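Appendix B, record 7
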Amino acid sequence: MFACGCGLCDSDAALQLLHHRWRTLFSLLNERQGRLYAAEKALQLGQEGARIVARILGLSARTIERGLQEWQHGLPSLGPERVRRQGGGRPSSADTDPTLVRTLEALLDENTAGDPMSLLKWTHKSSRTLAAALQRQGHEVSHTTVTHLLHELGYSLRRNVKALEGEQHPDRDAQFRYLHEKAKEFVRLQQPIVSVDTKKKEKLGEFANPGQQWADEDRLVNAYDFPSLVEGTVIPYGAYDEQRNEGFVNVGTSHDTSEFAVVSIRQWWQWMGRRAYPHATAVLITADNGGSNRGHNRLWKLGLQRFADEYQLDVTVCHFPTGTSKWNKIEHRLFAFVSMNWRGEPLTSYETVIQLINHTTTSQGLHVEAHLDERLYKTGIEVPDKDMESVQREGHAFHPDWNYTIRHHRKS
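Structure tokens (predicted):
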């Protein structure tokens, strides 16, 4: 039992009970106020004061020592609303470990999905799992730091929504890993990787477009979405180059067919791809497995063969399993920003659509080009067996229905 002149017994429980008022007042103070309050009480209690107050308030001896030093040397002026001097506190992990964020983004790269109509992204890995993976790579980081970094990178906590029908394919995650490894291979070989998909169709005319924008008055649009008021159809097919953060959007006006999809890829290569990769011998295309770019569509495969032959490229395609298209990078790195850029703006003409897409940018330097495609694409085109014989399609060992390469015919 120690003697301090205040009648305290030597158990922590008794100390805390007898000094309930101290603890109640201490809980209302900010960091600096609490430190000074504890130091002042320690001075009152004499030689053993710091040890006694530390036990009562649950503080470390170092904190109380700092408070005592501030009392002895004068209280520094910190300015309004500040609890520590400018630059005080431990530097962030991202500042002391320059490669931390880049390593975290690499871990997320194969596990990221996004809502194409917003800027939200999410990952199915927990912050603790990510922290453990970072620690195995030599980064000193906690799961709370990972949570802060995820928020800074634009990730959000998501809840479960009952919207899925049927079971997920058992090889879904294995396909994600295969696709990720294939992409790393193309990056290592300095070959282009392009993510493709069709954005949601839009009606052309004076129709309300969700969202708001700054203006001096409301924009009047049609009260009803009658088909007779539609002036045209907007079908944006996009190709996103993830290595260069560049996007190309071919704006169609008729039908979303496999022929239209391959023409859009050809347009991307003509306008952007071959300038960026003049020595390319192959290209990797990541796409979902439905719509105009579904893997079993004959017209899709024949169109890719003709594209490969025209530009002497081997075309590798990796499809996302059904129901997982939101993991395709084009959704959250291109289309999400296009939607944000034209929110609240009626798509009254094709010129307006092209202009809005062309002006889509991000703080990360996204560059987008859009072109209008007014060709008529017929539906229901049958590809005869004779034409399919020219397709040099090689299925990969893992899921050849999802992963395959179309070899070009060498020009004589």
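Remarks on this record: Residues 1-5, 116-120, 161-165 have pLDDT under 50 and may be disordered. The radius of gyration is 31 Å.
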